[in-house]
Amino acid sequence: MLQFSYMKILLITVSARGHAIAEAIKKSRHNPEIIHVCNSRNPGIKKIADEQIVVDSLMDFDPILEIAKRTKPDFAIVAPDDPIGAGLVDALEEIGVKSMAPKKSLARIESSKSFTRDLVEKYGIDGNPKFKVFDKSSSEEEIRRYIEDDLDGEYVVKFDGLAGGKGVKVSGEHLMSAEEGVFFALKCLAGANQVVVEEKFVGSEFSLMSFVSGEQVVSMPAVQDHKRAYEGDTGPNTGGMGTYSSADHSLPFLKQEEIDKAHSINVQTAKALQEECGEPFKGILYGGFIVTKSGVKLIEYNARFGDPECLNVLPLLETDFVDICQAIINGDLNEDMVKFSSKATVCLYITPECYPNSKDLKGKTVEFPDIEDNARIFYGDLSEDDDGALRLGGSRTAGIVGIGDTTSEAQKIALDLCEQAKGPVRFRKDIGTESLIAKRIELMKELRSN
Ligand code: GLY
After folding, report:
1. What digits encode the pLDDT tens for the residues 158-184?
2. Most buried by CB count within 10 Å: which residue of 169, 243, 246, 280?
């Protein structure tokens, strides 16, 4: 009989993404002990973890390092961007704890927009837009001329750092004139040394996340996220209202060569990161891509699992997540270790009715239906009373994932469950529907024919 040694994992995370990661760990044949470190209790992870330790902030490293010293985990998983970008992985390594997440220098692929654009250009990787990095010595006039003359007034302005999803503004969506673009760029320069101004792409966006250990890169199923708050892709941007993935692990509006291209960009970027930083990237490289009339372009990189994307893909993982984490850390990752079932998924995020506009409903109770094998529920910004009652926080409440042979079947499963949720909550009914997907296919047909 096979014997597995006792294993302990330090899981540093919050949110529904963390709940999905915890579930993937719990399914492992290693049956590891999970020590969950968080800044607010997640009732979903609480049921899975062996110990849940609440700290004031995941950005205050000393208490986390004390927990690591006391619990002596085999390794850590650091899920959120802020502590990764600020160097928690480096600090853990200094006390002998390795992580399934990149070190600070490598995490610049997410935390510095100028680093990413410069890296992609320097290493001759396809996918960059026309772009320019401005610094504090740049004049208002130089920025205006670049927006008006070089980019014909179709532009994106990116704060050169982590800004909780609020650092990127796009002309025609958030910024209505060149003047507003210049104003926002100057505002960014007040908070960081540099700002990136770049060409705006038109097309359909998708996410391709890869498990990466240095030059070993294994991609997960592609996912499409929906950031706008309301149906028909209207309203303000959010953390993501829902996502879908297809049974063939591509997306209905993508050609095979386009998904291959996105994978190839991830492979080349992982290699470039290793060369540039002198050490391997270890963790999740999440490419935010857009397919345009002139092919696949890179919008941005993240150095972590996407939320909700993680909720779609981890329930489909047929191989052992803990083996994958260990292989990433040890540098022996290969394709045979990563198999996803040929199923489609639709994740619909339940949020407070007022989300993302106010936190007025915080503390109201919410109830969810029972979930069967063809679905999952991952808890986000929720708290739990001693009697088990669940209460809303101010942000996304829970991701409900339907799993089926087709996207349409998965959508019906997720929709039916969301409709049974009780409380002052809402969700987008259109994500993953045949009609919304048909619009994406139509848009790409139109763009490709021009
Ligand atoms: N799905 C968007 C993000 O995780 O940043």
Report:
1. 999 888 777 899 999 889 999 999 999
2. 243
User: Which atom of ligand 1 has the smallest separation from the CA of 225?
Assistant: 1
In this structure, the residue with its CA closest to atom 3 of ligand 1 is 306
Distance 73 CA to ligand 1 centre (A): 28
* Residues 316 and 223 reside in one and the same domain: yes
Q: Encode pLDDT of 270-308 as tens digits.
A: 999 999 999 999 999 999 999 999 999 999 999 999 999
Q: How many angstroms separate the alpha carbon of residue 302 from the centre of ligand 1?
A: 8
108 close to 84: Cβ distance less than 8 angstroms: no
Report CA(385)–ligand 1 centroid distance (Å). 29
237 pairs with which residues across the strands? Answer: 228
Cα separation, 339 vs 365, whole angstroms: 38
Q: Which residues of the chain have pLDDT under 70?
A: 1-5
Contact (CB, 8 A) for 273 and 112: no
Same domain, 161 and 217: no
Give a yes or no: residue 121 inside a domain: no
Atom of ligand 1 nearest to the CA of 305: 4
Using DSSP's 3-state secondary structure scheme, residue 444 falls into helix
Return the closest-CA partner of residue 337 out of 29, 70, 13: 29
For residue 162, the model assigns a pLDDT of: 85
Give the CATH number for residue 172: 3.30.1490.20
User: Separation of 288 CA from ligand 1 center, angstroms?
Assistant: 9
- What is the pLDDT at residue 450? 80
User: What distance in angstroms lies between residue 231's CA and the mean position of ligand 1's atoms?
Assistant: 18
Domain that holds residue 135: 130-199
Q: Which residues contact 359 (CB under 8 A, 6 or more apart)?
A: 352, 393, 394
pLDDT at 328: 98
The beta strands (E) that lie in 98-159 are given as: 131-135, 155-159
Calpha distance 244→403 (Å, rounded): 10
